[in-house]
Amino acid sequence: MNTVTFDAFDELDDEIKQEFYEDVLAAIKDINECASILEAGADSQVIDRMFRALHTVKGNCNMVFLTQFVDASHKLEDLFSDIRSGEIDYDDIYGNFAVTAVNAIGQQIDNLIQRQGVDIDSLMRLENIIDRIEQTEQSSRLQIAEKAIIAIQDGHYHLELVAVDQEHGTAFSFLDATDMEFFQFIADQQSRADPQHENFILICESMALKLNAMLGRSIDEEQLKVAIIFICLSIRFIPVNQSASLSIEQIFFASGLLARMSSWGIASEVTLQINENHNGSGAPLALADEQIMPAAQALALAIEFSLSVLENQSLGYKASLFAAVKTINAKKETRFKARLIERFNQLIKSDYLNTQMW
Fold first, then answer.
1. Over the stretch 258-272, which tens digit does the pLDDT of each residue have?
2. Rounded to 5 degrees, what are φ and ψ at 175?
3. Which of 16, 18, 252, 356 has its CA 20 to 30 A from that of 177?
């Protein structure tokens, strides 16, 4: 952190400094209130009020010789000048950004009043972020603003450390993301790179979750979802062959990655058992019957069902469905337990026959 002192400001009377501080706090409070009001819809009078409050922050900083604060505040004022003039259409994200940015400026001013270090680098990076928002094409501007909010809140001010999950309309920091946010980001990136990946996820996850919910020994849904994401990742790195099953290499790849991360042991174990057969002829552990986790059998069935559907998708919904059902039922008591096949057939009748699921 690059901290500096402000000698000209320090030489001012305490009364002047206190009056400046109170005026800035009042303006920041007004900006927060304006953003809340604007959540109900864009209002030119409220936008004008927000602009004037931002101008107050800048003007007050200028009067007490806080040049670096003036520069950051001026950039924010310019952004809302463009919104005020209609050059940029208002969106709630801009209001949230203004609140986040001005609160960050306010925190640095508070540090100054409390005689703590002021992080000039953060102020400079804030200027650069606002420039990025203004200079970005309209189609990407909101996305940049959303990333900027997270970058400022996290305190690193680097847009590159924030990702936007376009599928789910959220932004998150790579430094502060939950495992599921990060895994979902990986899945979404794969979907954009390979359209078939999205179809596989859609079919497989739906079937696996439905079957899992019917099991006597079900597992947490997130464990199952993560197992599917990493199976897809293994297919991406080690391309699947034409058969409706995964190779040992793909299973070791997915299970091995999961085993190296805390909290995902169940997902790792389920993945490792995908190629185990009910009759004990599977691999890599040659488990049989009750030795196999029920969720592993359910996931294996969902994977083979999905691969079969995709292989026959050109034939149409009903034809590809029937082909997949025939494939699965042919493996009763060899690949899959009879009770699981019964549950699968129940699902097909109740959920898949009369409603197109993909």
1. 999 999 999 999 999
2. -80, -20
3. 252
Tokens describing residue 340: 């699981």
Residues 195 and 102 in one domain: no
Query: Considering the domain boundaries, does residue 242 fall inside one?
Result: yes
Whole-prediction pTM value?
0.65
Q: Determine which helix (DSSP H) or strand (DSSP E) holds 164, and give its type and residue range.
A: strand 162-165
Tokens of 162: 């924030």
Is residue 300 a part of any domain in this protein? yes
CA separation for the pair 352, 358 (Å, rounded): 10
What the block records as the tokens of 236 is 């991406």
Distances (CA, A) of 59 to 52, 225, 331: 10, 52, 76
Maximum CA extent, the chain: 88
Can you say whether the dihedral through the CA atoms of 146, 148, 151, 154 is positive or negative?
Answer: negative
C-alpha torsion sign, points 8, 14, 16, 17: positive
Could you tell me if 77 and 58 are in contact, meaning their C-beta atoms sit under 8 angstroms apart? yes
Query: Mind listing the pLDDT tens digit for each residue in 151-172?
Result: 999 888 988 888 776 655 567 7
4 forms bridges with which residues in the sheet? 118
Q: Supply the CATH number for residue 79's domain.
A: 1.20.120.160
pLDDT for position 242 = 46
